[in-house]
UniProtKB/TrEMBL annotation:
The keyword Oxidoreductase applies. Keywords: Oxidoreductase. Belongs to the short-chain dehydrogenases/reductases (SDR) family. The lineage of its organism: Bacteria, Pseudomonadati, Planctomycetota, Planctomycetia, Pirellulales. This is Oxidoreductase. It comes from the Bacteria. It comes from Blastopirellula marina. Pfam families: adh_short_C2. GO terms for molecular function: oxidoreductase activity.
Length: 265
């Protein structure tokens, strides 16, 4: 939505494909874009029941939407999904690479299968989705916008998550490289990334963990999935912004954990 008005190309509303949008942060991003006037392609793999129910909710709200299945570990499955989305809607204007896998990877327990699993979904699938969607965007005079969801921890890694953080850190370089390559094909294609801080606490987190997450920010509050969704909208709809990796972490990346008094230095 720009200046309170829904985006259209002629009389056609733009289409947003959001991977991993059946639940959690991906669903919030998809809902936010729907509220802004986008038609929504909901992607899921093992959560198709949730995806179908979400589509029903979107349609009840007046949003044109449909659910699409893809196994993001399969390049052929990704290509089929992109082709089906384009066939159904006739265009793809936005791709949000939100799908992700996450689990601890202590070095003394790390296996090659762990590394492969993390990179397959968190990195390789982003490249494949972006590549196939960009082929469609290149055909459009309006181009399109791709937003990757990385992680704030690529700037300040936490212990015990080296493989996960590496898989997300690769998205920073990939985002910038795709921005260059795709602009050469069509200057109206832009690629950016959001680096979210902690916006969803793990299930079973107690008050101590919750307060620690709050104390680690400058704004002294927990992040919300909608904070990420608003950042995605900004990157989607700002035509002079590309190749940017935007932290959305309440200042956690730059905050040392204490406020230093400059007078003592």
């Amino acid at each position: 939505m720009i200046n309170g008005k829904q985006r259209t190309f002629g009389n056609v509303r733009p289409v947003a494909l959001v991977t991993g949008s059946a639940k959690r942060v991906g669903r919030v991003i998809a809902q936010h874009l729907a509220d802004c006037g986008y038609r929504i392609a909901v992607h899921a793999n093992t959560s198709m029941d949730e995806a179908i129910r979400f589509v029903e909710c979107l349609r009840e709200q007046g949003t044109e939407a449909s659910a699409f299945h893809a196994d993001l570990t399969s390049e052929a499955s990704i290509k089929d999904m992109v082709d089906m989305v384009h066939f159904y809607f006739g265009r793809i204007d936005v791709l949000v690479n939100s799908a992700s896998v996450f689990f601890p990877t202590p070095l003394d327990e790390l296996t090659s299968d762990d590394v492969y699993s993390l990179f397959q979904v968190n990195t390789f699938s982003v490249l494949s989705c972006s590549r196939f969607v960009a082929q469609r965007m290149q055909e459009q005079s309006t181009g399109g916008a791709i937003v990757n969801i990385a992680d704030w921890s690529v700037e300040r890694p936490a212990k015990g998550f080296s493989a996960y953080i590496a898989s997300k850190g690769a998205l920073v370089t990939l985002t910038k490289s795709l921005a260059v390559d795709l602009a050469a094909a069509n200057p109206a294609i832009r690629v950016n990334a959001v680096l979210p801080g902690q916006v969803l606490l793990p299930e079973g987190s107690g008050e101590t963990k919750r307060q620690a997450a709050i104390d680690a920010t400058l704004v002294k509050r927990l992040g919300e999935p909608d904070d990420v969704a608003q950042a995605v909208q900004f990157l989607v709809e700002s035509p002079f912004v590309t190749g940017v990796c935007l932290p959305v972490d309440g200042g956690r990346t730059v905050f040392s954990g204490q406020f230093d008094d400059a007078s003592v230095h």
